[in-house]
Prior knowledge:
The structure is a homodimer.
Chain A: E1 13-16, H1 18-24, H2 32-44, E2 49-54, H3 67-74, E3 81-86, H4 89-98, E4 102-108, H5 111-118, H6 122-136, E5 142-148, H7 161-173, E6 178-182, H8 190-203, E7 209-212, H9 220-229, E8 234-237, H10 257-266, H11 275-289, H12 297-300
Parallel strand pairs in A: 1-8, 2-3, 3-4, 4-5, 5-6, 6-7, 7-8
Amino acid sequence: MPVAPEVPPRRVHVTEVGLRDGLQNEPVVLATEQKLALARALIAAGVREFEVTSFVSPRAVPALADAAELVAALRDTPGLHLSALVPNPRGAERALAAGVDSVVLFVSASESHNAKNVNRSVEASLAGFERVARLLEGSGVALRGAIATAFGCPFEGNVPVQAVGGIARRFAELGATHLSLGDTTGMATPPLVAERVHHLRGAVPDLPLTLHFHNTRGIGLANVMQGLALGVERYESSIGGLGGCPFAPGASGNIASEDLAYLLEEMGIDTGLELDGLIGAARLAGELMGRPLPAQVSRAGPRLALAECAAVPTARG
Amino acid sequence: MPVAPEVPPRRVHVTEVGLRDGLQNEPVVLATEQKLALARALIAAGVREFEVTSFVSPRAVPALADAAELVAALRDTPGLHLSALVPNPRGAERALAAGVDSVVLFVSASESHNAKNVNRSVEASLAGFERVARLLEGSGVALRGAIATAFGCPFEGNVPVQAVGGIARRFAELGATHLSLGDTTGMATPPLVAERVHHLRGAVPDLPLTLHFHNTRGIGLANVMQGLALGVERYESSIGGLGGCPFAPGASGNIASEDLAYLLEEMGIDTGLELDGLIGAARLAGELMGRPLPAQVSRAGPRLALAECAAVPTARG
Lengths: 317, 317
């Protein structure tokens, strides 16, 4: 399938998922105050949309045990949209009590990943979502859908686009306001992006699509280019490229927010993000995690951060 | 400038530059036998075009002091195209004597980078090329042109497209058969790629264009996507992402051959390259350099290298 001939959007919405997807797989567990310092740096750089945490069992994901405290602390900052993953009605109740703007319900498009992730069938996950949807009625809190392994499953391989479309329709029936396609282990490719975006625009034409890529195989931003060529306006990324994958040791995590923001800025696409601020936040994230993060712009500096010209020739071509 | 609406090519030519651009900036100097082991692994993976070395002063670039030996050793393998950089007529004589298929003449599009690199003005470099062109007459060895800092200069910043076009015309007048645009310190962006490709197609319509990107700011393959959308059929890359930049410490080097090959293969574009073989070569390169290389596919494995599905749920969304 060729790169599509459409015109890229003028404005792109970037949701920062570093505090959730970025941190849940990192060996270092940050204190709430450290997460807040990172969030404040991101807010100063223009970030307004955060997938801020996940209301899962603290035993399953200790790094996110402070979900309610984190939401409460960020609630003081005006103008933010805070979303949080919830795996079940109990998590949704906790998220509502904490004061999120939207809850994200997630299910994998492949049975084996869903079983590994939440220990139930895809159908059982979807049935559980109906109880969450009823909980949200009248609360003013939006429901968002996220489909993991939407571009491939690390256990099963290719995932039929119809499986993704079928789940998307269920989310639409539940009243979801957004749908995110998760490239959980970095298996998305430009042709798969095009195929899935076209299919979903047919299946759920009223549901805005968000693309959530991992850079596991180095082509995360190539997939963004394909998304832009198709006119997709919403992307998720993680500051510094925080995160990883428990099934692919050594692999990179989410696409990095500062690399994405750099690409979009250079393409003349408005994001509301400020690159120098993101680079500062990425450096803070690296310090907090105690390791170099995979993102590039934060290491190399912005495009026009000029070097000194010393006099020694190098003849390097 | 929007992503162009053209159809990507069905076939792409990838020139492996790891032995030249990749090694010249690495702190570890490989023995000729180690380079040959890497070259053999690459040949086994389908690589047929190598920018194999540079006939520069061994004092300036000790890592490439074995230029003649390396070319002589690879000459025994049929079906290869071996090119080498030459900075001056003396280098061209050495390259001719060694038996290369083409010599690559290089000049920067910005004065300060050219001064830093070869200690002369752009005009003085171009004048010197005429002597090399005369040397090559009747030799059967092709002349290729390479323009460094073609998308920006680390000392001067933006580089006018007219500077690139003017040099390109000089290369065309010299009888060059190919022209490579070097993104020396990773300053290329999709709009700059589109601008430069369009301009050069007007300025030198008969000169096939090669795009040579560095992944310094993480968007190397996004730039390839733009090149593909414009129908550009020739790219240069480095196995494992070998290489770096003396002006941007910690920055990534060339785009990685295996990540590029993975992207192209997944897009249904024929390269003649075999991904598993490239991954093996990249791992060998990492062992030889004694450090993890920045490429992703060689760490994460191919897309459908499936994981085992253990029973413990992770609830990671």
